[in-house]
């Protein structure tokens, strides 16, 4: 029997690329599934209409509207990429899935999109290595001064347990590479650095040489594909409190990355110096990059020792490593020059 999948944030960088990956599948369980895409504007509906799937405009903060979308379209699986920091949309989606599950007597699945920054000292996490097979939910509950992304992750686990929905949390590091969706094709971090560097004619770096985890967008979409396929086939995989999946492929040494970007931008005549300089302050960095001042230090300097275990259990084998990333860093510059046409709304609610 065909199952119905709803992808939220389908006009975004992650959601659009995931949707494109699902559509491109020629074999396997996804070929028999019916895809539905949730977006926020009429313009986005029009942009995605060429895909030949059901595109719905919905306010995910509206519980009734979310319920109608899930129940009217008989959604069995939700892949939620629209936001990692707002608990209400996640709760609404899970509640509706629970109602759908009760009506059919079958299973319902919710795949969340989390943020790796939370699992670093800078993000309020404990020091040292953390595996996605550790008791993450229990540790998260003990942390005071909870940030929105952590709160949302906890809501996912709790609401899914209440409503009998199997939940999964794909925790994303810094992501790079050209998106394959129909609307937004650029990630957040590196395009922001490049865009700001061009505007100010100089590349800046933070006062800490961090070494954050990173993954190419194609490897990210592969993990979503594998996890969703496992749900479609009813494969028993870790979920709920054990359902964290660290989508970490390699490290991205920031001082080296910034120097490579400075060199590449200088060679193109876009900045005045081939070397990066330290930001005068975190406030200045937040203002220039358009990032929340409250989280700028964590976003700009976190490293974190995230060890992925669960992704390998579903067959995830990243194709991009640190060497390949650094050798192709100029592609990030070219992508911004060619594709920087849609303003990011990631921090609109922060």
From TrEMBL:
Ranges where the NAD-dependent epimerase/dehydratase domain occurs: 5-83
Cellular-component GO terms for this entry: cytoplasm
Classification via SUPFAM superfamilies: NAD(P)-binding Rossmann-fold domains (SSF51735)
GO molecular-function terms, A-Z: aldehyde dehydrogenase (NAD+) activity
Record-linked InterPro entries: Epimerase_deHydtase (IPR001509), NAD(P)-bd_dom_sf (IPR036291), NAD(P)-dependent_oxidoreduct (IPR051783)
Protein name, as recorded: NAD-dependent epimerase/dehydratase domain-containing protein
The species this protein was found in: Massariosphaeria phaeospora
């Amino acid at each position: 029997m065909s199952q119905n999948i709803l992808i939220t944030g389908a006009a975004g960088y992650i959601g659009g690329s995931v949707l494109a990956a699902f559509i491109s599948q020629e074999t396997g369980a996804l070929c028999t599934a019916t895809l539905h895409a949730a977006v926020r504007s009429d313009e986005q509906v029009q942009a995605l209409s060429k895909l030949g799937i059901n595109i719905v405009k919905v306010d995910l903060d509206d519980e009734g509207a979310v319920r109608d979308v899930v129940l009217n379209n008989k959604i069995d699986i939700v892949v939620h990429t629209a936001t990692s920091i707002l608990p209400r949309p996640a709760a609404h989606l899970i509640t509706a899935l629970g109602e759908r599950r009760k009506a059919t007597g079958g299973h319902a699945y919710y795949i969340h999109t989390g943020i790796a920054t939370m699992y670093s000292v800078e993000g309020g996490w404990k020091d040292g290595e953390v595996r996605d097979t550790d008791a993450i939910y229990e540790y998260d509950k003990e942390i005071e001064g909870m940030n929105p992304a952590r709160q949302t992750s906890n809501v996912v686990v709790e609401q899914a347990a209440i409503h009998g929905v199997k939940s999964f949390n794909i925790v994303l590091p810094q992501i790079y590479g050209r998106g394959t969706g129909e609307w937004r094709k650029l990630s957040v971090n590196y395009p922001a650095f490049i865009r700001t560097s061009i505007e100010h004619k100089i590349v800046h770096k933070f006062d800490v040489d961090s070494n954050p985890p990173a993954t190419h967008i194609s490897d990210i979409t592969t993990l979503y594909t594998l996890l969703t396929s496992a749900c479609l086939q009813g494969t028993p995989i870790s979920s709920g409190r054990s359902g964290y999946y660290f989508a970490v492929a390699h490290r991205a040494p920031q001082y080296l990355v910034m120097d490579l970007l400075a060199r590449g931008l200088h060679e193109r005549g876009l900045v005045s110096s081939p070397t990066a300089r330290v930001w005068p302050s975190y406030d200045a960095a937040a203002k220039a990059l358009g990032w929340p001042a409250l989280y700028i230090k964590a976003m700009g300097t976190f490293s974190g020792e995230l060890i992925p275990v669960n992704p390998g259990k579903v067959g995830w084998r990243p194709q991009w490593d640190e060497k390949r990333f650094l050798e192709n860093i100029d592609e990030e510059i070219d992508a911004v020059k060619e594709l920087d046409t849609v303003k990011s709304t990631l921090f609109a609610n922060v």
